[in-house]
């Protein structure tokens, strides 16, 4: 059988543990965007570091899980493509250990292109 191409964010790039989310929030490097708020974690210890990215959309944002999950999927897919195709952005992100994106109510009705534009804007603001 042919192996299928996986179109998901790699496991090594996903932030999963609660303590990692809390640690990223506590760093207090916050970037506000139109559709989400980004929390940037500690600078990486090594050059070989792969950034871990977490996506959060709370029930306060929208009651329907379908809407919340759609926003998370859009953010995750945009970051997957950035890490896959844009070497400069990947190198800039890999200087940090973690990044958490917290979606807000404005992102619920956003399109793929809107999210992509905001993420590109965010990457230009990260030092």
Compact overview of the structure:
The chain is α+β, with helices and mostly antiparallel strands and 127 residues long. It is 41% helix and 16% strand. It has a single domain, classed as Ribosomal Protein S5, domain 2 (2-Layer Sandwich), CATH 3.30.230.10.
Folded structure, characterized:
Helix content is 41%, strand content 16%. With 127 residues, it is an alpha+beta fold. It has a single domain (13-125), classed as 2-Layer Sandwich (Ribosomal Protein S5, domain 2), CATH 3.30.230. Strands 1-2-4-3 form a 4-stranded mixed beta sheet. Helix 2 packs across helix 4. It is globular. The termini are far apart. 26% of the residues are buried.
Topology (elements, then pairings):
Blueprint: H1 18-27, E1 29-32, E2 36-40, E3 52-56, H2 65-85, H3 87-93, E4 98-103, H4 112-125
Parallel strand pairs: 3-4
Antiparallel strand pairs: 1-2, 2-4
Helix pairs in contact: 2-4
- Measured as a percent range, the helix fraction is 40-55%
Record field, number of beta strands: 4
- Overall tally of domains: 1
- Helix and strand string, N-terminal first? HEEEHHEH
pLDDT average, as an integer?
A: 90
